[in-house]
C-alpha cells in the first residue's frame, strides 16, 4: 500500500470526494432556484425564495422543531440507560450477560419495517402516536444497542484501578460516574451521541407509521410536500436544512473518528 | 477476568426495560397476530399456520429472497474492499487529509433515508440531472425505469454512495487501534505491504470488519424505502426485494399476513445474528500466526 505515491493517493481521495459531493451539489443548487412560476422571480434563476417559504411555513417550522425534540430526547435516553449498562458489561460478568448482549445485537440489526406493524398498534394503545416522544422511544430499539457497544469499548480501555481508587476515596457509584468516568470517556460519549444521532435522524419507516396525523418530523414533512405540482426547490431546501445538524455533528467528532474506537462483538 | 457479580443487573435494567417495551413486546404481539385473521383488531379469527403456509409455498417469496441475497452480495463485494482500501490509504496520510476525507465520506450517512432516492432521481434525471444529462451527452441510452440492469446499477451505486462512509469509518477505527510496535516488528521481518495487510492489519481489523459486514448485510438485505422510491420494485418485479412485499401488506393493513411475514423475516435476522456470533467467537488463534509466517 505504501507503493502508491502521495499524488495518486490525493487523486483517489479527490475522486471519492467528488463521488460523494456531486449528487449533493445538484440538490444544493436546486434548493437555491425557484422551480415553480412565481410573480417577480424568473423560473430557474438563483433565488432564496425556497428558504423564505420555509421561514413563512408554520408546518415546516414545527416539523424542524419536532425533529430536534425527538432526536435530542433519543440521544439523551440512549446515553442515560446505555452508560450504566455499558459499565456493567465492561466491568462485571453476570448471569445471562452473553445472552443479553446477543439480544441487543439482534435488535440492532432487525429491520425497522419488521417491527413497524406491532409498534404502531402498541403505541396507539398507550397514546404514544403522533408525538416526538413516541419516535424518541421507538428509536431506542436500535440505538440502545449501539450506545452500549461503543461505550463499553471506551470504558473497557480505562484501567480497573481507576474505579477502585475512586471508590476508596469514598465515591458512590453515581458520584463516580459523574465526577470521574464521564470526564474520562468524554470522547466516547461524543462518538456514541454522534452514532445515535445519525441513526435516529435518518430513520423514516417507524417515524412515518407513528406520525400519520401529527407530530411529523422533517422527513415526513418533506414527504407531504410531494403532490400534483411538487415544488422541488422547496423539497431540496428542506433536505439541505435536514443535513445541516448532521454535518455539524460530523465536524465536531471528526478528530475522534480519526483517532478510532474499539467495538467489541 | 471480570468479577462475577449479579448486582450488575441493576445497571442494565433500565436499558432492558426500554428494549422490552419497544422490541420484545411488539414481537410477542406480532407472533400472536400471525396466527389469526384480523379483519379488525377486535375481531380475531384463529387460522393457525395458514399465513405461514401461504408465504413459504409462494414462488414470489423465494424470488424476492434470491434477489435480496444477490443485492447484498453485490453491495458487500463492492463496499467492503473499497472501504478497506480507502481506510488503508488514509492510515499513512496527513492528519488534515484524514479528517477531511472522513468528514466528506460520512455526509451521506446523515441524509434522511426517504431523501436519498429523491436526490438520486434528481441526479439521474435525463432532462435536468447532472449524471442523466452527461450520460445522454455521451450517447449512453440509460433508462433506469424500463431496463432492469440499469435499475440495479442505480440501486448499487446509490447504496454505495450512502454507506461507503460507514465501512471506511469502521475499517479506519480498526487500523488505528494497531500499536506501532506491530509495524516495527513487521519491518524488521522485511514483510511486504501485502504481508503486513494479511497478517498484521486484517487480523486486528477482524472485529470491526465483521461488524461492518453484519450491518451492511442486514441493511442491504432488507433495503426498503430507498429501493422502493427508485422504481417501485420494477421493471416487472426485477428489483422486488423482501421488504417491499412486507411494506405493501402493512400499507394495506393486512394484519395477519404481514404479521406472519414479519415473523419469517425476524427468523432470518435471528439466523444471521447467530451465524455471525458463531463465526466471531472462534477467533483467538489467527492473530498469533504472523510471527512465523512473516519470516518466510
UniProtKB/TrEMBL annotation, chain B:
- Do the record's keywords include Transmembrane helix? yes
Q: What is its main location?
A: membrane
GO cellular component annotations, sorted alphabetically? plasma membrane
According to the entry, every stretch annotated as the ABC transmembrane type-1 domain falls at 65-276
- Mind telling me which Gene3D superfamilies this protein's record contains? MetI-like
- Give the GO terms filed under biological process for this record: transmembrane transport
- Keywords attached to this entry: Membrane, Transmembrane, Transmembrane helix, Transport
What is its membrane topology? Multi-pass membrane protein
Domain of life assignment: Bacteria
**Annotated transmembrane regions:** 12-35, 69-89, 96-113, 152-175, 262-279
Cellular location(s): Cell membrane
Q: Pfam families from the xrefs? A: BPD_transp_1 (PF00528)
Assigned protein family = Belongs to the binding-protein-dependent transport system permease family.
Q: What PANTHER family does this protein map onto?
A: GLUCOSE IMPORT SYSTEM PERMEASE PROTEIN GLCT, TREHALOSE TRANSPORT SYSTEM PERMEASE PROTEIN SUGA
Q: What is this protein called?
A: Sugar ABC transporter permease
Amino acid at each position: 500500500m505504501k507503493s502508491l505515491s502521495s499524488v495518486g493517493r490525493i487523486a483517489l481521495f479527490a475522486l471519492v470526494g467528488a463521488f460523494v459531493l456531486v449528487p449533493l451539489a445538484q440538490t444544493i443548487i436546486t434548493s437555491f432556484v425557484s422551480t415553480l412560476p412565481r410573480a417577480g422571480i424568473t423560473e430557474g434563476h438563483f433565488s432564496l425564495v425556497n428558504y423564505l417559504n420555509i421561514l413563512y411555513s408554520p408546518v415546516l417550522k414545527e416539523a424542524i422543531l419536532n425533529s430536534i425534540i425527538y432526536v435530542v430526547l433519543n440521544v439523551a435516553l440512549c446515553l442515560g440507560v446505555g452508560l450504566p449498562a455499558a459499565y456493567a458489561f465492561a466491568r462485571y460478568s453476570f448471569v445471562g450477560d452473553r445472552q443479553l448482549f446477543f439480544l441487543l445485537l439482534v435488535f440492532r440489526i432487525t429491520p425497522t419495517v419488521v417491527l413497524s406493524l406491532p409498534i404502531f398498534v402498541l403505541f396507539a394503545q398507550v397514546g404514544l402516536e403522533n408525538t416526538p416522544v413516541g419516535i424518541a422511544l421507538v428509536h431506542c430499539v436500535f440505538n440502545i444497542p449501539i450506545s452500549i457497544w461503543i461505550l463499553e469499548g471506551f470504558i473497557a480501555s480505562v484501567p480497573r484501578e481507576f474505579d477502585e481508587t475512586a471508590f476508596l476515596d469514598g465515591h458512590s457509584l453515581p458520584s463516580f460516574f459523574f465526577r470521574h468516568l464521564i470526564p474520562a470517556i468524554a470522547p466516547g460519549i461524543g462518538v456514541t451521541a454522534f452514532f445515535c444521532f445519525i441513526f435516529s435522524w435518518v430513520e423514516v419507516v417507524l417515524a412515518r407509521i407513528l406520525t400519520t396525523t401529527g407530530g411529523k418530523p422533517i422527513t415526513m414533512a418533506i414527504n407531504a410536500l410531494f403532490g400534483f405540482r411538487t415544488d422541488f426547490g422547496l423539497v431540496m431546501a428542506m433536505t439541505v436544512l435536514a443535513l445541516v445538524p448532521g454535518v455539524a455533528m460530523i465536524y465536531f467528532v471528526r478528530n475522534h473518528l480519526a483517532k478510532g474506537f474499539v467495538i467489541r462483538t | 477476568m471480570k468479577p462475577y457479580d449479579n448486582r450488575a443487573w441493576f445497571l442494565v435494567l433500565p436499558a432492558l426495560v426500554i428494549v422490552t417495551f419497544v422490541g420484545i413486546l411488539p414481537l410477542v404481539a406480532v407472533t400472536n397476530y400471525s396466527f389469526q385473521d384480523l379483519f379488525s383488531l377486535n375481531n380475531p379469527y384463529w387460522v393457525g399456520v395458514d399465513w405461514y403456509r401461504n408465504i413459504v409455498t409462494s414462488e414470489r417469496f423465494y424470488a424476492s429472497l434470491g434477489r435480496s441475497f444477490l443485492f447484498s452480495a453485490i453491495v458487500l463485494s463492492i463496499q467492503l474492499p473499497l472501504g478497506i482500501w480507502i481506510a488503508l490509504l488514509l492510515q499513512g496520510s496527513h492528519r488534515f487529509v484524514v479528517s477531511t476525507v472522513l468528514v466528506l465520506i460520512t455526509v451521506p450517512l446523515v441524509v434522511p433515508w426517504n431523501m436519498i432516492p429523491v436526490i438520486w432521481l434528481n441526479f439521474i434525471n435525463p432532462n435536468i440531472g447532472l449524471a442523466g444529462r452527461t450520460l445522454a451527452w455521451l450517447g449512453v441510452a440509460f433508462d433506469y425505469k424500463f431496463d432492469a440492469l440499469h435499475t440495479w446499477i442505480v440501486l448499487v451505486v446509490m447504496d454505495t454512495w450512502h454507506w461507503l462512509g460507514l465501512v471506511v469509518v469502521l475499517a479506519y477505527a480498526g487500523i488505528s487501534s494497531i500499536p506501532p510496535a506491530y509495524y516495527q516488528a513487521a519491518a524488521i521481518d522485511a514483510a511486504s505491504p501485502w504481508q503486513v495487510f494479511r497478517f498484521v492489519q486484517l487480523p486486528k481489523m477482524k472485529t470491526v470488519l465483521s461488524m461492518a459486514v453484519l450491518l451492511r448485510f442486514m441493511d442491504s438485505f432488507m433495503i426498503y424505502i430507498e429501493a422502493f422510491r427508485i422504481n417501485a420494485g420494477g421493471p416487472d418485479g426485477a428489483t422486488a426485494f423482501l421488504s417491499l412485499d412486507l411494506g405493501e401488506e402493512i400499507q394495506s393493513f393486512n394484519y395477519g399476513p404481514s404479521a406472519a411475514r414479519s415473523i419469517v423475516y425476524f427468523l432470518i435476522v435471528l439466523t444471521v445474528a447467530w451465524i455471525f456470533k458463531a463465526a466471531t467467537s472462534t477467533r483467538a488463534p489467527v492473530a498469533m500466526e504472523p510471527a512465523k509466517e512473516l519470516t518466510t
